[in-house]
Structures are given as C-alpha cells and as structure tokens.
User: Which sequence fits this backbone?
C-alpha cells in the first residue's frame, strides 16, 4: 500500500514538474523576445510585459511546492496559481489602458436617400448621416475635419496620426465628379465638448495629394473644461454605392479604444434586404467569450432596419468594424446627368 502511495506521489511530482517546466521555458522565451524588441517598445509597456513574464516564472516555481497533491489537484493548483499571477499582473495593465485609451466610443449612422440627387437622376449615391462621440483624457489645440473627393487609396494618410482630425473622410465617386465645395456633398454640423458647441474658426478649400479637399477648424472654448471630457461631432457625406447588390460601410479604430458601441439605421426607401455585422477584423487586447455582442433587427411595418455591435473590452488600433448590406441589383437610370460635377 505504501509502495502504491509512493508511486502516486511520484507521478504527481512528474506531472507538476512538466507543467512547471512548460510554463518556465515559455516565459524565458518570451523574455528573450521582449529583450530583442526592447528598442521598439515603449518603456511603460516594456515594464508591464516584464512583470507579466516574471509572474509566470514565479508561478512555475511555486507549483513545485505542491508536488505532493493528487493528479487532479496538481492541475487545479497550477491553474489557480497561474490565474492569480496573471490577474495581479493584468490589473495595473488594465489601469494603464483605462488612463491612456480612448473610451466610450459611440457611433450612430443613418443611411438614407439624398432626395435632391435622386430627383435629378443622380441615383448612385446614398447619404451617411453620422454622429460620434468618445471620452478623451486630454484635448489638442483645436479640432479639425477634412474631406477629399478621390478614388485613390490613402489619399489622406498624412492626417491619420494627427489627433486634431476627428473626421478624416475620403469620398469616392464616379470619375471623381463630385464637388467637395458643395455642402450637400459633405458638411460638418457641429462639434461639442461636454455638450458645449465649439466655434467654427475657419472653413477652407485645398488640394491634398492632387485631390480637392475641404477642411473645417473648430476652436476650443477659452474657459476651463471639467473632466471627463466627452467630444461629440456630427456630419453628413455622400457615399457612392453604384448599382452593387452589396454595400460595405467600414469604420476603423485609429487608436486603442475601450468600450465601443456602433449602430446603423437604414431607410426603407433604399430597399436593402438584410445587414451583416462583420467582426473578423476586430483585434481585442484581452479576448474573452461573449465580449463582442452583435444584433440585427427590423422595425415591423415601417421597414426600417438596424444593426449594432458592442465591445466592452479594449480594441487594438487598426481594428475595423464593418456593416455589409444586401439588396437586389438596382437598375441604372436611363438618363444619367451630373448636376454637381466638378467645375474644371
């Protein structure tokens, strides 16, 4: 009997050592990789990741102490120690993210028919009426919006990393015939901080990388603002959908963001059948089951369709949220006129 007990203890020791060795070696490899990338990582992130790795090493060593436990208890004890170590390490990391990340990103988009264009046979476009808000920890010197009519990719890439530009929008069109100077093509309805409207300081027309563009600059209020700071802005823009049966409405996350809600509402006059919420290009910082919630709905009798997506955890920079709309292929107008063509 005693011999059997010794065998069980020995087996448990082997299991514990194998688990510990696996964790220990993985942590060492991670630390070597972290050292190799140290010059490319910010100091705060390097410190947090170093703490995580050292916690894993400490957890691996601690599991050896429990080598006397039964097989099941050995596994449970190892997992418990690891979970505790990871929780203690990620706690300051989450706190750091909450302080530096954009928070409470709220995006509402209404898709509707631009009546003034349909009346004139200009039926390849829809209106996007967008309002958006988020909480920031600090403010730039001013806020700006820029629109450009161009079909080439990355035409506004020079503005991507500038925190002043809350709207950075490329308007695609057939042969670039739209006139960006026409406020019916695109316009900003306002920017607010904590509900206080900002004054429009200037509105100018310029050329960006060969494309016609329009820029709005809003001045910050002179009096101090009370935190938390919530910025809200609203604008409309024409979107070229041609006669495609599938229409895509993408929106990109340009910096680390925590707590996202995106909503879409579609006018029944556009005759779309259904909506798909695409989450394949979303990169969560701390993935968890059930962290992403999506829903598609249709209001009875009215025909209004809607879709939403909610993500509570942090989402990494570069993630994309996309709504995909389906419809029967519309017929092109027999007479296509261009009343808002660009003046040459």
Assistant:
């Amino acid at each position: 009997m005693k011999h059997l007990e010794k065998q069980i203890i020995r087996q448990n020791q082997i299991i514990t050592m194998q688990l510990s060795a696996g964790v220990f070696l993985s942590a060492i490899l991670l630390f070597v990789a972290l050292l190799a990338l140290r010059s490319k990582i910010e100091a705060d992130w390097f410190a947090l990741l170093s703490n995580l790795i050292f916690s894993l090493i400490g957890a691996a060593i601690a599991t050896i102490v429990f080598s006397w436990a039964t097989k099941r208890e050995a596994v449970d004890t190892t997992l418990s120690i690891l979970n505790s170590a990871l929780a203690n390490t990620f706690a300051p990391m989450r706190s750091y993210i909450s302080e530096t990340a954009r928070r409470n990103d709220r995006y509402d988009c209404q898709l509707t028919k631009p009546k003034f264009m349909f009346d004139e046979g200009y039926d390849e476009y829809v209106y996007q009426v967008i309002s958006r808000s988020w909480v920031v920890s600090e403010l730039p010197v001013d806020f700006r919006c820029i629109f450009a009519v161009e079909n080439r990719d990355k035409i506004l890439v020079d503005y991507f990393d500038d925190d002043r530009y809350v709207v950075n929008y490329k308007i695609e069109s057939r042969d670039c015939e739209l006139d960006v100077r026409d406020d019916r093509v695109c316009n900003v309805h306002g920017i607010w901080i904590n509900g206080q409207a900002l004054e429009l300081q200037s509105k100018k027309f310029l050329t960006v990388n060969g494309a016609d563009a329009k820029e709005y600059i809003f001045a910050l209020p002179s009096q101090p603002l009370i935190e938390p700071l919530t910025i809200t802005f609203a604008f409309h823009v024409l979107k070229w959908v041609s006669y495609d049966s599938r229409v895509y409405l993408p929106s990109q996350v340009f910096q680390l963001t925590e707590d996202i809600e995106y909503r879409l509402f579609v006018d029944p006059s556009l005759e779309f059948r259904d909506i798909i919420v695409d989450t394949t290009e979303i990169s969560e910082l701390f993935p968890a089951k059930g962290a992403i919630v999506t829903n598609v709905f249709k209001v009875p009798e009215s025909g209004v369709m809607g879709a939403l997506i909610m993500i509570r955890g942090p989402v990494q920079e570069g993630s994309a949220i996309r709504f995909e709309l389906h419809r029967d292929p519309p017929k092109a107008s027999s007479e296509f006129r261009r009343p808002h063509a660009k003046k040459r």
Notes: Residues 2-99 form one domain. Confidence is low (pLDDT under 50) at residues 334-341. The chain is about 25% helix and 40% strand.
